[in-house]
Amino acid sequence: MSTFTIFLGLIIIVSLLLILVIMVQNPKGGGLSSSFGGGTQVVGGVKKTGDFLDKSTWTLAVLLIVLILLSNLSLNGGFGAAESKVLQGTDIETTVPEEVPAEVPAPVESTTTDTIQ
């Protein structure tokens, strides 16, 4: 299993978690935080569920961006291998065009015996 495959699996997991956290939130301030009875009440030792969801959204978003950048580096093989092999001239195959015949046949003229008078 390659490093890129591991990063790809982590990206999928973080994306699904990010979707879940965003779907739990309510854009008007409701959502999970309002279902526990208000914004300032303490439920299970957590004061504001909305703050937790906001922080987890930002954390997952930053983690997703970092994973995407790291997967790009692992796909290219690191920092030094990102240069083009064509520019370096290592993998260029030189192809010589086939020789063009020296004499090109002249176009054939049509000979018509019927002339309009």
What does this structure look like?
By secondary structure, this protein is mainly α. The chain has a domain at 3-7 and 47-75. The chain has 4 helices and no strands. The protein has helices at 3-24, 31-35, 49-76, 85-88. The longest helix is centred in the middle third of the chain and has 28 residues, at 49-76. The chain starts with a helix and ends in a 29-residue tail after the last helix. 3% of the residues are buried. The model has no long low-confidence stretch (mean pLDDT 73).
Key structural traits:
117 residues; mainly alpha; 4 helices; 0% strand
TL;DR of this structure?
The protein has 117 residues and is an all-alpha fold. It has helices spanning 3-24, 31-35, 49-76, 85-88. It starts with a helix and ends in a 29-residue tail after the last helix.
- Alpha-carbon distance between the two ends: 85 Å
Q: What is the residue-mean pLDDT, rounded to a whole number?
A: 73
Percent strand equals under 5%
Q: Order of SSEs, N→C? A: HHHH
The biggest beta sheet is recorded as:
none
State Rg.
Answer: 34 Å
Content-based structural category: mainly alpha
Number of strands: 0
Counted by DSSP, the helix tally is: 4
Uncertain ranges = none
Shape: elongated
Helix content estimate: 40-55%
Topology (elements, then pairings):
Elements: H1 3-24, H2 31-35, H3 49-76, H4 85-88
Helix pairs in contact: 1-3
